[in-house]
Amino acid sequence: MSTSIKTENDITVAKINGDLDHHTAKFIRGEIDREIAAEHPVRLIIDFSEVTFMDSSGIGLIMGRYKLMQDLGGDVVVASPPAYIKKVLRLAGIDKLTRIVGDVRSAMPHTTPDVKENGISGSTEERKKINEEIGSETN
Amino acid sequence: MKRSAQKPINEMKLAFPSYSENERFARIAVSGFLSQIDPCIDELSDIKTAVSEGVTNAIVHGYKGTVGIVQLNVKIFEGGRIYIKIQDKGCGIEDVEKAREPLFTTAPEDDRAGLGFAIMETFMEKVRVRSKVGKGTSVVLERTVRSRKQRS
Question: Is B49 in the A-facing interface, judged by CB distances under 8 Å?
């Protein structure tokens, strides 16, 4: 189990590797909370693409971070959960609490200049998607 | 050796201390044992999740800050029926009905979601809980799995 955490442009991406259970959740929670306390991001993206197992401890982890980010005026996005993790997320109603997206890039907003700087404004489709997101966030 | 229909065709027992490191060991052990009936990946994934919930409950709530022994008994019956018993000799549950309610937790400060039993009930066909305060708790999970060979 390991977690790689990076904050750029006020967005923290936490990529969890390995099993997410009661034993590992406490370490992951500590790492994410330290980063949030230090960086005060506006969005926390939790990347599940490399998670090999998850039980309700993962739900507790997401719900706890959701409350924390809400207190800071930010939000949480769940990215790339494999099918069996989606099943647990749906059962817990996490899809009603946070956005669940197919990949980290889809969870990236924000402003057009940032997008250009990051060089991901290439396709019209991508730009449309991001503009839609900015629209829905400001509405 | 002739085996009757009522008797399991195979069985395993495990006992381990309630260290949280053993949550992973327990689900891998169950998954390894069940691999002989060649279950589908999604079924195995459901069973592993249910076992993880049951074992975590024993560790977090049954033994609550103390160390005790968690016992695991897995039986395989004809037709792919599986029986899993997770037992602790911990503090027991005062109100089992309440404990089984979704989102009920006695440890919200530890980010426990209160969904352990809801997950066990969704992912398994039968969940039976027996508990006595001061004596311990046993959770029995049952489900019939269809092997990949049977499906093809």
Answer: yes
How many CB contacts within 8 angstroms connect chain A with chain B? 62
Interface of A with B (CB under 8 A): 19, 21-23, 25, 29, 53-57, 59-61, 63-64, 83-84, 88, 91-92
Q: For the domain B10-151, what is the CATH code?
A: 3.30.565.10
Domain locations in chain B as residue ranges: 10-151
Tokens found for residue A77: 């996005």
Which residues are CB-neighbours of B64 under 8 A, at least 6 positions away? B90, B91
The ipTM value here is 0.89
Q: Give per-residue pLDDT as tens, A39-92.
A: 999 999 999 999 999 999 999 999 999 999 999 999 999 999 999 999 999 999
| pTM for this model (two decimals) | 0.85
| Of B84, B21, B96, the residue nearest B51 (C-alpha) | B84
B124 touches chain A (CB under 8 A): no
